[in-house]
Amino acid sequence: xxxxxxxxxxxxxxxxxxxxxxxxxAVGHVYNVYGPELVxxxxxxxxxxGRAVQAVRAALLALRDKGAxxxxxxxxxxxxxxxxxxxxxxxxRGRRRIAVIGAAAAAVLAAGLVVAFESGGDAKPExxxxxxxxxxxxxxxxxxxxSPAQKDGQKKKDEKKEKPxxxxxxxxxxxxxxxxxxxxxxxxxxxxxGLGVAGLxxxxxxxxxxxxxxxxxxxxxxxxxxxxxxxxxxxxLKAGRSATVTVVVRPTVLCYIxxxxxxSVSFSPGGTxxxxxxxxxx
Length: 282
Hints:
By secondary structure, the protein is an alpha+beta fold. The chain contains 7 helices and 9 strands, in the order H-H-H-H-H-H-E-E-E-E-E-E-E-H-E-E.
């Protein structure tokens, strides 16, 4: 029990008589004498000042109905603490509440309670404030309407953009697969026929020449049979210019068993080199 100094017994006697006789302002007098220390005690139990104020208020307001249950002046103070303790332990949904308030409003509630008690009448629950009306959503902008004349004008503008200007022929894209340019590739693979492959890899040249215009070329794929054929490269050749692609052949067991093999190297935008080779038998 808190060690706050108790009021004189004659004061407690007047409080007890007022509660037993249910005199107007009796509860307010109890709060004026014991209210601060009871709130401090309830806050220690609940850990929240706002809830403590509510609990003390509910406990003291309930004293109006106790009448003959109020004890003598000698045990009155201890009895008040027990009443507040029971109120603090009461489930929240069974507790008498006026309205849900935040911690920031707890001090205001306590001050209002003192004023109500000191006015000579019992405090009454304040009416709940009506909730603010939900905000009205902003009106959406009216739909934009387009007249037939505006649609026709926009259509003509689009058609004008798509048509080339007068006197300027439209640009033509170069023909040929893969954007290889206007020319074509001439493939000379004579150096890769009958290639002798022994224990080490052998290489041979494939000569590419641009015919009829510029050609952008590249090795597209490589196929082999009996050995491993590899080749790579790419570039741009102007008409009449040439480039050499090195083809490498590596012998395998199948090449030795069969005595030889072959393969091919395909180029983009077109053209294929044929590779043939022989292996020594074991």
